[in-house]
């Protein structure tokens, strides 16, 4: 629902973010460790501690954080959305690295330059990077 403005027109920023998530796919999303933690609002809640995808370009992390922060928890009528409540996602200063599957065929600028350049040429070719896509400059205040 973030994708559309109140007048029904598509929001170009959210269209772009949706496109990024589509390209990344499931294998490109952040992994996390889940645990229960005391909540100041009542019983324990499930917390997901985000783990770093070493291969993924840092600019993508910024976009994924924007998506996490701006998720809509209610529908247009102010009612809670159906389904499970989204978990709280924490990004600690010292993030654990995740070595899960590395998706092939992503745009070249989705891979971290240092990581990609450290690979032997055969592994670089096996990843089969596609041409880079434009990076949209999205400046959102940190407390949004």
Summarize this, please?
The protein has 144 residues and is α/β, with parallel strands linked by helices. It is built from four helices and four strands; from the N terminus they run H-E-E-H-E-E-H-H.
Overview of the structural elements:
This protein is α/β, with parallel strands linked by helices. It is built from four helices and four strands, in the order H-E-E-H-E-E-H-H. The longest helix has 17 residues, at 12-28. It is flat and about 50 Å long.
Series of secondary-structure elements, N-terminal to C-terminal: HEEHEEHH
E-strand count:
4
Low-confidence stretches are none
Structural class: alpha/beta
Helix coverage percent? 25-40%
Features:
144 residues, alpha/beta, 4-stranded mixed beta sheet, flat
């Amino acid at each position: 629902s973030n994708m559309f403005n109140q007048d029904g027109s598509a929001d170009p920023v959210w269209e772009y973010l949706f496109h990024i998530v589509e390209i990344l796919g499931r294998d490109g999303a952040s992994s996390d460790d889940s645990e229960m933690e005391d909540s100041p609002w009542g019983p324990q809640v499930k917390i997901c501690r985000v783990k770093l995808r070493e291969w993924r370009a840092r600019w993508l992390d910024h976009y994924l954080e924007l998506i996490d922060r701006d998720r809509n928890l209610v529908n247009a009528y102010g009612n809670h959305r159906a389904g499970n409540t989204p978990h709280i996602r924490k990004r600690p200063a010292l993030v654990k690295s995740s070595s899960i599957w590395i998706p092939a065929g992503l745009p070249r600028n989705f891979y971290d330059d240092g990581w990609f350049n450290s690979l032997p040429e055969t592994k670089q070719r096996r990843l089969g990077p596609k041409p880079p896509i434009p990076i949209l400059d999205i400046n959102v205040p940190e407390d949004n």
